[in-house]
Task: structure prediction
Amino acid sequence: MAFQSQTYGKLNLKKVPEKIMDYVKRMEKYDAPFQVTVGTDSQNFSDTKIVSVIAVTCEGHGGIFFYEVSRINRIADVRLKLAEETTRSLEIMTALVETLESDEFSEVRDKLSLVIHVDASWNDRGKTKELIPGLVGWIRACGYDCKVKPESYAASSIADRISK
Result:
């Protein structure tokens, strides 16, 4: 997986934890909680453009993010799109966790809370409300916390902006 960063340029997923560790070490002086969030959003064109984001924040002191863009055959059904987005977010988080579990990252790994953001809303007018319990249950069953709109900024703000 090839990720982009406005700060670090192009890097593969194996290099992202190194940048996360550097960020945590730089921001430790603030004694604030750190969060690693993965979120995915997609937009339909002639195909489906999918953007996955890894956001790292230090509460009250900003953050950094990395993103990956891919294109697949058009997915018209909202259920299938959300399933694809959630699958990608889970795959990325799992790969991150596998890397972070190595001894190299032991000094920062326990300082990170891990959350997956889903681009779904409880809004009655939206098409995603009824899908939220299943998506949240799926993510929590995989061992991660989950946020939906309006708290799902990695998917509904960062990834959304890049996907358009």
Helices lie at 16-27, 78-100, 106-109, 132-141, 153-163. Strands lie at 2-5, 9-12, 34-44, 48-58, 63-72, 112-118, 145-147. The two ends are 20 Å apart (CA to CA).
